[in-house]
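Protocol step 4 of 5: obtain the predicted structure for the target chain.
Materials: sequence only (see below). No template structures provided, no constraints applied. The aim of this step is simply to have a reference model before the mutagenesis design in step 5. Sequence pasted as it appears in the construct record:
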Amino acid sequence: MYYFAQINMEDGSFNVSIPQFKNINTYGDTLEEALQNAEEALNGCIESDFNRGYKIPKTRNFNGNNYYKIPIRSHIKLAFQLRTIRNKRSQLELAKELGISYQAYQRLENPGRCNPTVKTLEKLARVFKKNLEISIR
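Step 4 output (structure tokens):
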């Protein structure tokens, strides 16, 4: 999962905006610094908006030389996926199926606190009837 940042050179710095998030603007003295700042700003914004119940825009592609893919951190993606695939099932119901406390399941859907073990990920995959794929690229 990723979003695109638009990066333009202005007055000796690289100015960054994320078209789908009007409230994100940052910059960097170098392109690398601008990309790093964009990732930090985007992930922080998504985590905050997600926790406050705001709707997160769907990703879309942008073309052009000044657009760059900005990745969403894994723990944020997982929290987002769990909330999406949970659908109409309650957190309490899933916690019981997983054999964990309600509070432990709540943490899994909270991008700021989501930090499951691999065993928990395996249980989640089983409960949701999904395949678990873990990779480091």
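Step 4 remarks: The longest helix spans residues 31-51. Strands lie at 2-10, 13-18, 21-28, 67-71.
Proceed to step 5.
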